[in-house]
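Batch manifest, entry 17 of 40.
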Amino acid sequence: MRQILNLFRIPELRHKILITLGLLFVYRIGYQIPVPGISLEALKEAANKLAGSSLGGLFGIMNAFTGAQLDSAALFSLGVMPYISASIIFSLLVKVMPKYEALSKEGQAGQKIINQHTRFATVLICLVQGFFVYVGVIANPEMQLLPQGPSFLHGLAVIACLTAGTMFIMWLGEQITEHGIGNGISLIIMTGIIASMPAAIQQALTASENAHQLMILLSALWIGTVLVVVYITRGQRRIPIQQAKLTRGRKVIGGRSHYLPLRVNMAGVMPIIFASALFIVPNALGQVPGFEWLQQAFSRAGFVYITFYTALIFFFAFFWTRLMFQPEDLAEQLKEYGSFIPGIRPGKATADYLSFVLDRVTLAGAAFLSVIAILPSIVTSNLHIPYMVAYFLGGTSILIVVGVALDIVDRLNSFLLMRNYDGFMKAGGTGWARRQM
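Output type: structure tokens
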């Protein structure tokens, strides 16, 4: 309690907290604004009636990452997925196109240009996804959401509203990142997941005859998943670093030892978010007449879905880790500052050693992410409960919530320690942090 009170005793930190909470409140208010011309009562009835169908699956997938419920928040139906998809594209382009690779090395000016192109790509993706949402969901005759029937102008207005909603969410995320605490987009996703959990719990209670036993089992699974996620997220592979000794007269400078921490799950939640963003496309296409086979091919409990999902998670785990951590650059920096890894020659040998250790750590992290990601599918097929119940009570949602929450706690802890206040956590970390792999 004392640490919580200390948060509001620091003016700068108090300002950041209030800005973050205020912008997240605005984000949730936006879900009460309906898309024009849609009967919300009909949308509620359709969502309940088709909860177990392929259309209900599309509702669930979109709600999972937007935190929305399409029966009450039509304006923000697309959520942040178009922006995440655009970020995937340009993260890849930075690695494969010399033009964007050069821009990424130009500092803030180059990054600003890449961000502008990402926004333009977000708009295009919004238009495409908005079209599929309108054709496959809103204008679908089975849904009966349009009392006056579909029209070109109404479809254009709906797509424009959905695009504007996503761009506004993206702007809110940027403002939180710049003026608030933590990564804005991650906070928005976490807020949406938490806001959707009560509905998932209620669905679990009404869907089972043994509701209390099911809740005990799901609660135990949830607690166990949280503990494992915290343990792995805090895990590190510490590489010892030795500073070279310099003798000046009778004084010896340097010679200190420290370590380089390599997190087991260095990529965080991004591989799962990226992989899930790509899986939105076949699920959206599956709502269009003539593409129903995509729904069957990519059913969540199917072999194709799990195989492709796991492969994408492994790919993005290695890709994102190498994007953030480049052993060659780090080895060069260590050499310039006169530091070295004991037993390893500076330069290329150090870079090769760092790459070897990084690949091993990333492999363990990717395997952990894959297990967490497919956990809802396994729980659904064995316990026979709705997928979204399993999703919100375990698996990816817990990884996102715990990962973002730990990041926020770390940032708040740093603010408190800088102002000579007691932090939230004791030093030390988990056993992984002290273990040599």
